[in-house]
Queue: 4 jobs
Job 1
Amino acid sequence: SELFKRITHADPEERMPPVDSGRALTSSDIETLRAWISQGAKWEKHWAFIPPKRPTIPPAKNSAWPSGAIDRFVLAKLQRAGLQPSPRADRETLLRRVSFDLTGLPPTPREIDAFLADASPRAYERVVDQLLASPRYGERMALDWLDAARYADSHGYSLDRRRVMWPWRDWVIRALNDNMPFDRFALEQLAGDLLPDATIAQRVATGFNRNHSIQSEGGVINEEYRVETVVDRVETTTAVFLGLTFGCARCHDHKYDPISQREFYEFYALFNNVPETAHVGNADKLADKPFVKVPSAAQRKQMEWHRAEIAELEKKPEAEQQLKAARKALAALGQAAPTSMVMGELSPARKTFVLSRGQYDQPSGAEVSAGLPAALGQWPAGAPRNRLGLAKWIAGAENPLTARVVVNRFWQMHFGTGIVKSSEDFGAQGEWPTHPALLDWLAAEFVRSGWNRKAMHKLIVMSATYQQVSRVSPGLLEVDPVNRLFARGPRFRLPAEMIRDHALASSGLLVGRLGGESVRPYQPPGLWDDVVYENVPRFVQDH
C-alpha cells in the first residue's frame, strides 16, 4: 500500500513521519514493521459479532478508590492515561442526580432533608432502593423505550388522526415497575401473541411492532404501504435489540456489515405475516386490524358485575327482560373498551421474495424463508421459524449483540454517552467501545443476573465512577473534554420531558396517576392551519 511505501521509504524526504517531526521511525522500527507485514494480517470477525465472554476484573493498583468491578475497569484505563478519578459529589448534588436518573423527577425538600440527616454508611443505597421501588421508575425508564419503539397516539401521515396505543404504553410501564426480566420483556413484545394461551396483556405487548405510521389517504396503494410497515418492523427490531443498521441491506448487500440483501428479506419474512392493510382510510378509525379490546380496570369490574348478574338472571325464567338489558349493558361495555393494535399471523404464511432495489412491486423471483444473517449466528435448535423463535434467539446465549446493546444504553442513560458512543450502530461504521472489557463484563453480568434491569441500574449508580463530582479541571478538559475516560461524574442537559415535569413537580401541579388515555397538551395557535384540509377537525387542547 502507499502507506507502507511512505513509512518504509529509503529517502528521508519521502519517509513518513518526517524526520524533523520528532516522531520519525528508526531503522529498527522499520525492520520490525517489515517483518510484521511479511507475516500477513490475521482476519477476525468484527468485535460486536463475537459473543462476549466475562473478562477478568483488573486489580486496583495503588488505589483505595474502587467500590466495585465497574470502578476497577475505569481506574485501569485512567491510570494508563496518567489520570486519577475525581472526588465524590456532595450529597445534595448526588441525590438530585440519582433521582432524575431513576425517576425523572427531582427529590422533594423532605427527601433532601432526610438524606442529609442520615449519617449511616447505607444512606445512599437506601435512597437508591427507594427510587427503584417508586412507580415513577417505570415511567422514567419507559421514556427511552417508547422513543426507541416510535410510540405515538396518532397515525402520522397527513391528517394524523388519533389512534389508541396507550394500552401498550401502560403495559411497558407496568413491566418495568415489576422488573420483568429483559429476556421476557423482549419475548412478549416480539411474539406475545404466539405464546400458548396468550393473554390479552401478552397480545397487547406486541404493540411494540404496531407503532409504525399508518396511511389514511384515499389514493394510496395498499401493498406499497404494507411493505413499508414490514420494513419498519425489521429496522426497528434490529436497531433496538441488535444495534445494527439493517435497513441498509433492503436494496443491496450492506456496504459495511456482513448482511446480504437476501438475508435482509429472510429476516423480513418473520414480520411479513401480519393480516393488515396499513391503510385506515379517511374514516376516524382508532386502530388498524389486527387489534384487541382492552377494558380498563373500571370497565373490567363493571363487566364482571354484569356477568354475575346475567348468571343469576338466567336461572329465573320470569326475568327475560332484565336478562336482555343486562346482556345489552355488557355488550355496550365491551364495545366501549379501548382498542390496541397487536401483531397476528396469517395461515398459511404469506410468501416472501427479495424485492429488486427494495421496490414493493418488483419481486425478483427469489423466494426466501425466515432466517438470520449467518454472521450473527444460527437459528436456535428446536425453535419455530417465526417471531417466537426469533425472540428466543434475541435474548439467547449465542446472540453476540443484545446484552451489549442494552447495557450500553443503560450506561448512556446515566452518563450521557454510552461506552459505545454510537449506541444505535454496533456495526463496522459505529464507534469502538472506549472500555471493551467493561462493556463485556456488564453484558455478562446482565445475563448472569437473570436479565435484571433494576440490578444493573443499581450496580451503575452505586459505583464510585457514577458518584464522582462533575466539575472539570482545565487539565482534564484538555485531556478528556467529553469525559470518555469517566474521570469525572456525568454532566449533560436534562431532556425536555424532565424539565417540564420538574416545573410541574416543584409547583405541586404534577398529576401522579399512572396510565390511561393520553392527553393533548398545549400547541401554538394556528399550527394546524397549513397541514390539514378545510373542514377537517383541528387539534383541540385538553385541560
Job 2
Amino acid sequence: RVKDLVELALRIEGCARHTSVHAAGVVISPRPLHELVPVALSGKDELTSQYPMNDLEKVGMLKMDFLGLTTLTVIADCLGSIKEKLGITIDWTKIPNNEEKTMQLFGEGRTEAIFQFESSGMAEMCRRLKPKELEDLSALNALYRPGPLDGGMIDDFIDRHRGIKPVEYIVPEMKDILGNTFGVLVYQEQIMQLAQKLAGYSLGEADLMRRAMGKKKIEEMAVHEEKFVGGAVGNGIARKTAKEIFDLMAKFADYGFNRSHSMAYAVLAFQTAYLKAHYPAHFYAAVLSHEAQDSAKVYKYSTELRSMGLALLPPDINESDEGFTPGDAAVRYGLTAIKGMGTSGVQAIVEARSAGKFTSLFDFFAQIGPSVVNRRGLESLIAAGAFDSLMPGGKTIAEWRAQLSAAIEPALSHGQRMAEDKLRGQSALFGVETAGEVADEELPTVEPWSKAELARNEKAAIGFYLSTHPLDNYKDLLEDLGIANFADNSDLRAGDTVTMGGIISTLAVRQSKKGNRFCMFRLEDRSGGIKAIAWGEAFQKFAALLKDDEMVIVEGRIEASEGQDP
C-alpha cells in the first residue's frame, strides 16, 4: 500500500492544483495570443493564458500589470467640482513638491483618506518623520513594509532624516546615489546605479544582478560578486570595501522597492493631501461619493470631516445631488447614499426639481410619479430628514417625520391619480396644480416619534446617527461621571485602563479554541468609536446587555499594536 501511495504521489507531484487569474496582469503579444501560447477561458469568461507568469516571460510574451485606482477618479471628481463651483483650475506643475500646508498635514499625521497613508501605523511614521517634500513621501511608501520595519531600516532613516544620527557612506562615490535617502538603501534602482557607477556594469547587467539578489539565486550571485568586486577594484576601490558594498546590496535587495512605483504613489498621496489641506469640503464630497454604498466608511469619514471644522448637512430633497456635494465649510449628504434609493430614482428626482423646487410630499409625487421611488425608498428619505426643509414653523422634527410617514399611502395614491390624469390629458381644475396647497390638510394627526425612534429610523436609513443620537439624552449624566467622548480620548496608550460610554454596534459572538464564547463589537458615540472585545467571563456576566443598539458604560484596558487600530 505504501508503494502504491508513493507511486500515485509521484504522478501528481508538480501538477497544477488549480487555476487562478492575476488581478491586473495583462499579456501582450505581436500576434493573436492563441497562435503563440495555449489559452483558456476563466470562470468569468476572460481569455487567459494557460502558462504561469514566469513561463510566459520565457517564451517572449510581454506581461504588464494595469492597476485601476479609485483614487484617480476621486482626484478627477474633486478637481472638476473645484473648477465648477469656485472657477479654479489646479495645475499640478505649478504646485511645489514641498507645499507647506500639505506637508504640515502629513507631519501632524492627519492622513485619513490620503492614498496609501491611511493606516494608523503610517500616520504614526509621518508624525515621527515630519516629511518635508515628495522624496520623503516616496521613501515612506517604500519603507513601510514588513521587511524594512522588522530590520529597523525605517528607524535608521527617520533618525538620519532628523539629524539624530550622522549620514555615512562606505565610499564617497555613493553620496550621489544615496544622498536623497540619507545613505539608506531604499530602492532597487539604487542597487543598479551602484553597480553601474562603482563596478562598470551596463544597466541591463545591473538589472540581472538586482533580480538575482532579490530572488536569492546563489549560483548567479556568486558570478555577480566576482564581477562586481573585480569591476570596483578596477575603479580604485579596495577589495575588502568592494566586498562590503556587495554584501550590503545583497542584504537590502530583499527589501528594495521599485522607485518609479513608489514615487508615482507618492505623487497621488501628495495630490490627495493637497486637495484635503486646501479644499477639504470638495475633497471629502468626492471621497464620500465614492464610498456612498459603504455606510461604515461614510460614518468614519463624516466623523473626520467634523474634526476638520466642516459640517455634514443632512440629505435634502431640494438641495442634495446624487453624490455628496461641497458647500461653504460643509458637505451635503448625497441621495444615493440613502438606503433603498437607486441611481435611476435619484436621477429622476434631480431632473424633476430642475423645473422648480418641491413644496410638499404630495407635490413631490405629483412631479416625479409614483413608480420612481418605492415605499421603502420614501420611508428612508423621510427618516433621513430629506423633507425636513419643507417643515412648517411650530413643528418639531419628531412630529413632522411621524406625520410624513403616516401620509405615505395618501401621497402615493395622489401621485397615482396625477399620473393617470396626465395620461388622459386632464389637468387640475382651472389648469392649476394645487398639490402643494392641499399637502398640510392631508397630513394625518399622529403621535410624534420618540427620540429613540427618531434616532433608530435615521440609522436604518443612512447607516449611522446624523442629526440625532441616542446618547444625547445622557449627555449630562456622562459629564457628571467624568466620561469624555472618543474624540477627546485620542492620546490613549496600550495598557491604559479607561471608562467609556457609547452605543454597541456590529456585535458578533465568537467561540474560542477552548470552546468559551466571547463577543466583538464597536462602541460608538457621536464623535467616533473603538473596537471592543468582551472575553468569556465578562461576556457571560453581561450577555443580556451585549446586543446591538444597547447603550452601555464600559471599563476596559487599551490594546494597541503597530499599524492596528486600538
Job 3
Amino acid sequence: MKKTLGILSCGVLIAACAPNQEKKSMKLDYPESKKVETVHEYFGTEVKDPYSWLEDDRSEETAQWVNAQNKVTFGLLKDIPFREKIAKRYEELFNYPKVGSPNKIGDYYFIYKNNGLQNQAVIYYKKGKDGEEKVFLNPNTISKEGTTSIGLLGHSEDKKYIAYSRSDAGSDWQKIKVRDIANNIDLEDELEWVKFSGADWYKDGFFYSRYPKPENGDELSAKNEFHSVYYHKLGEPQSKDKLIYSNKKEPLMYHYGGLTEDKAYFTLYASTGTDGYELYHSSMENGVNNMNFTALFSGFENKSSVIDHKDGKFIVMTDIDAPKYKLVSIDIKKPDAKNWEVIIPEKDELLRGVNTGGGYLWASYLKNATTQVQRYNFDGSNRIDIQLPAPGSAGGFGGYKDDKTLFYSFTSFTYPSSIFEYDIESGESKMYYQPELKFDPSDYESKQVFYPSKDGTKVSMFIVHKKGLELDGTNPTLLYGYGGFNVNLTPSFSTSNIILLENGGVYAMANLRGGGEYGEEWHQAGMLTKKQNVFDDFISAGEYLIKAGYTSSEKLAINGGSNGGLLVGACMAQRPDLFQVALPAVGVLDMLRYHKFTVGWGWVPEYGSSEQSQEMFEYLKGYSPLHNLKEGVSYPATMITTADHDDRVVPAHSFKFAARLQEVHTGDNPVLIRIETNAGHGAGKPTSKIIEEQADKWAFMFSNMGYTDLYPEQK
C-alpha cells in the first residue's frame, strides 16, 4: 500500500490588492547564447540545432551560461516589490505539522512527519498503536541543504529488517540500505545504481531492479540501458547479487516485479516504456536459484497487473477488452482468456486500482475524476460502498490479510489532506489526523464544469475560487494541466494555491485527453499522432474561462510540469495571444531528441520517435515547442523552471528552449529561465527550495498581470 504525505495549510485570510492596470515594461538584456552550426537529418530533412552545445551538462560553457541566466532571473525576481511578502506569507501557510498514514510492520507503526518547515519528512516509529514515538530515520541530519530524501521500501519476512532508499539532490538514482528495526541501526548492506525499484523480501534477502554503473561524468544525462532484476542476500556485497532477469537483446526496457503476499509466486513486468507491458511469473517452490519465467501476458498493447494469488489462481486487473478495466481470476494452469472468471466487470467508471487487506478486495474508482471506493469479497460478492467525507481524492485501503483496521487519506481542493482509520468489521471511519488550521477552507468553493474542445469533445475541468467571486473577466487565473501517460488529475489541497485564491484569483485544472481519468480510450485519444488533441483541450479550457467571465487573456497564466511542461510550451507557441504568463516546468521541449537522454526512450510508446518513421518525425516536429517558436512574435511572459540534477527530463530541454525563445521573442514580456541547483525533477525537493520556487512563481505571475503590491499590511 502506497503512503502519501498530505499537503495542508494554515494562516489568516488576506484580501487582495487591486492591480495597477499600467503594467511596467520588464524588457531585459539577456545573456548571449551562442549559435553553433549543427544539423540533424531525419528522412532526408535537415533540422538545425544551433543550441545543441547546451546538451553537455558537464562543459564549462554550459555552466557559464547557466550562471549568467540565473543572474538575470534572480535579479529580476528580487526586484519585484512584493516577492518577499509572498515568500513570508507562504512560509507562514506552510508552517504546520504534516502527517502521513501509519504503516504497520509487525509490532511497529511507521509514520512520516514534518513539524512544519523541516526540509524533509522524518520517519518515526512506535511499538504498538499507543507506544512512544521515536525517530527512526531523519534525512535532515544527512544534508545541510536538506536535499537528501529517504523512503521506506520493504521489510523482511520476520519483520526484523527494513530496506529503504536514499536519493541525493533530487536525482532518480537511489541507493538501497537496510536497517535493523528493533535496534534502529543500519546494516552494512548498500546497493547502488538503483532506479525505479522496490525491495520485495524473500527469505534472507530481497529482489530489486538496477542499471549497470554508468561512466563517470555521464550519471545525469547518458541513456540508461539494461534495467535488470537482481536478488540481494543480506550481508553479502552487491557484487555477489544474483541476476534474476535481464534482456541482453533489448537494452531499452524496464524490468521490475514482486512477490504475491503468500510468497508463492514472483511476477515480473517487462516494458518498452511508460505504456503497455508484458507479464511473466515464476513459482518460488524451488527458491531463488531455480526460477523459471512463464509468460502470462505477451506484447505491449495492454496493461494487466497481478493483484494477488489465491488457490492456484491469479487475481488480475486488466484493460483487455475493458478500456476502463476489470478484475478477473486466471487459473495459472489454464491461463487462456476463455477460462477467465470475471470478479468485477468493467463499469462506466474507471477502475483505477485494487488493493487487498483484511481478507477483502478494495476497488478504487474514478467517477468524473473523483474517488469512489468499494469493498468486495474475493469472489466479487457482497459489494459495500465506502462513505468518503466529500467528493475528492482518497488513497490507501490496503494492508495484509490479517489486518483489522486500514488507514486512508482524503483530500479535495477545499479539504486539507487528512488521515482516517477504517475499522473493517464495523465499516466505520474515524479521524486519525486532521490539521489545526487558522486558514478556513470553507471560504472557498470548487465546481466541476464540462466544456467543448475544438472537435466538440466534452472535457471536464475543476474551478476553485473565493465564494462570491465576481465574474467580471478581471480575476488573475492559473490554468493547470498535464494530459499524458494515463495520469489522473484529481482534486487535492494545495498550500501554494492559497497565495492565488486569497488574492482574488481562480485556479483551474483540466482533465485533458492523454490522461487516464476516463479510461484507456481517453488516454489513447491524446497520445502519438493524436497528441494535438491535448493542446486543443487546454487552449479550449483557456477560451472557456475567458468566455465564462472568470478572466481575460491579460489575466490568464498556464502552468504544467514534465509532460505538462511540454503542454505549456506547445500551447504558448500555438496561441501566444491567449495567455499573459506561461510557466513551463521541467518540460519535454525538444520532441526530436528527447529519447537520446537517460530514460527518455521510455516515452516512445506515448509520443512516438523522430527516428521511427517520416510520418512520426513530421508530426513531432509539427508541435515540438523548441521547433515552433517563430521570429517576430510577442510571446507571453515566460519563466521556464528546471534543475541541474534532473535526470528524468534533462535540463537541456529547458536550456535550448530558453535560448531560442530569447532569440526570437519580441515585445516587453520577460523570458526567464530559473535553474535550481542541487535539485531534480521534483521528488524529494526540500521545503526551503519549495517555498522559494513558489514565491518566485507567484511573484512573476502577478507582476506580469499588472499588480504592484500584494499583502500591503505586511511590514
Job 4
Amino acid sequence: MSEMRRDPELMAMEQQMHAKAMAMPAMPAMQGQPMPAQPMGTGNALPAQDNLPILSPRMGMTKERLREAMQTLMRYKNGKNEMDQRLLDNERWWDGRGWITMAESGNPFTAKRPTMWLFNVVMGKHADMLESYPEPAILPREKDDEKTARILSKVVPVVLEENDFYSTYDDQAWEKNKNGTAIYAVPWDADKHNGLGDVKVSQVDPLMIYWEPGIDDIQDSRNVFVLQWEDKDQLKAMYPKLEGETLESGFMQPIYETEDSSGKQRSRYALVIDWYYKTWQGKKKTLHFCKFVGDHVLYATENMGDQGLYDDGEYPFVVDALFPIKGSIAGRGYIDIGKGTQESIDLMDQAMVLNAMAGAVPRYFSPEDSGINEKEFLDFTKPIVHVAGGISDQRIRQIEPTQLNGIHVTMLQNKIEELKQVTGNQDVSTGRAGGVTAASAIAALQDSAGRSSKAGIRGTWAAYAKIVQMVISRMRQFYTVDRTFRIVGDQAAMEYMTIGASQLGPQKIVNPINPGEFMGVRIPEFDVSVHAQKENAYSKMAQNELAFQLLNAGIFNPQLADQSIGVLEMMDFPKREELMQRVAKNGRLVKEMAMWQQMALQLASKYEPETARMMASNITGAPVQGTASPGEAKMPEETQESEVTAKARQRAEESRRPA
C-alpha cells in the first residue's frame, strides 16, 4: 500500500481530492472562525459572507443569475401546484379535518365527525414498513475489493446509526404511505465531528423541494431547489452584511395548516433557497450549489472554483415513490386513493348518527296558540304539565323520524370493505386471522395478505440501496484521513475497523506481465444488496416451529451434513444461508475429528498397544471382536503386520548371536 501512495499520479489525485475537501464550507471553521448554524439541514455548512472571494469576470454567482434562478423556480412551482395542493389536502385528511376540503369544494353535505378508517390504513402500512427495516450487504465487483466490501458492510450501518437513520426511516414511512413520496438527502456535513465532517442522511419535505416538471428521475432535472424558512434575526447574526437589507424574495411558498397560529406568522422569517444545478465541462458532468436569500448569495461553489460540489455529479437526493405517476418523480399515497371512499363513509356514518339521535330524542309539532307550557313540557322532571284550555291530539303531534332500512347499514359496511380491499388492509394483515390458530398458518395468511405492503417495501429497499451508494460516494470523496469505527460483532465482541481513501480512492493498475509498468487507476465499485426480516409475533412463532421441525428431521446431525445441505438448498426461509454454513461446518468438524482419531489410534497402536486398545474401545463404545480380554480392542491391520515384522527381526538377531 505504501508503494501505491508513492506513485506520482496517485499522489496527485489524492492531493486533488483533499483540496476539494478543504474547499468545502468547513474551511472557515478550520481557520478558527465561528461556524454558523445549518438552517437547511442538508449538511452544507454556511461560510461567513466576509470570506466570499471576489467574483471573477469569467465565473461566479451574480444577482442577474439569481434572478434567472428565481424565474426558473417560479416555473417549477407552477408545474408542481397540483401536487402541493394534494399534499395540503392529505394533511387535512390525516388530521381528521377532511370536511374542510369538502366544504371548500362546494359539497352541501359535510361530515364533521371523521371515522378515521383511512388513518387505520396508513397506520397498518407504516407498521409493515417498520417490520421490514432494511440492512445492507455490500458486495465487491472485483476480487481485490473483497476486504473493503466486508468493512463497508460493517461501517455503513454505523454511519447510518450515527445519523439516527431509524427515526428518519420512521418519519419517511409515514410520509410515503400518506402522500406517496418520501425524499431523502445524503449530503456531506462539514460541521460534524468538530469540523472533520461526515456523511449526513436526512429527510426533505416534498412541499419544500422543486424540480423540473415532466421528468421521472430527479437526476434528469436541470435544477433542483430546496427551500427553508429561517429567522431573519439569526440570519443577520450569521451574516452581518445582511443587516438593513431586504430579504424578501416575493416567492409565495405554501405552508401546512397547523393547530397553533405560529405556522402562519411568516413575517419574521425569510425564505432561504438551496439551488443545485448541473453543468457540463467538456464530457464531464459537474454539480454546483448556491445558497441565497433574496438577492444575496450566502455560498456558491462557483465562487470557490470549478470543481463542483460532489465528485459523482449527482444530486444528493433519493426519491421513494409509492404509486408512481407518469411524468413525475412523485407518487400517490394511500390517502390519495382512499379519501374518496372515506368521504362516503363519513357522510353515511354521520347521517346514521343523526337519525339515531332523532329517534332517541322525540320532537313535536305544536301551533303557536296551543296553550302548552313548553318549559314544563320539555322538563322531564316535572310530573305535571299545565295546559290552557282543553286537551286534544290536534294541539300537539309527535314528529315520527324516518326509520332507516337495513340496506343503508349494509351499504356502509360495503364501503368500509371497499376501503380495505382498495388499500390492501384486510383483517388478517392487521392481526385478525378468522379462527386460524397455528402460527405457521397465520404467518402464511399474513404473507399473502401483505402483498401490497411488500411491493411498497421493495421500492423502499431500492431507494435504500441508492442511499448506501451515496454514502459510499461521500466517504470516497471526503474520507481523506482514515476513519476508525468500533463494530460490535458476534457474541458482543468489539472490533475496530479502518476505512479511508486508501481503500475507497483511486487504485493503481499494473501490467500483470510486467509489474513495473503502470497502466492507470481504477475506482472501487460495489453493489448493494438489501435484506430485512419481519419481526412480528406470528412470523417468530412460525420460525420457531420450523426450527423444531428441522431438529426432529435430523438436519442438525453432523453425521448427515451432506444430506442436510441438499435439503436446505431446496428450502426458502430467513437466514437459510447461515444455517447451511453452520451445518456444513459441523459436518467438516466431525470428519476432521474422525481423521485425527484414526491417526492417533494408529500411532498409539505402534508405540502403546494397551493405550490403543482403550482408545478403540472408547471410540467404538464396545469391545472389538477377537480381543484377548473384554476391554481389549482389535489392533489395526497395519499394527499387526508391524508386530510380526518385529518378532521376525528379533529371531534374526538371536540367530546371529554366537552360541
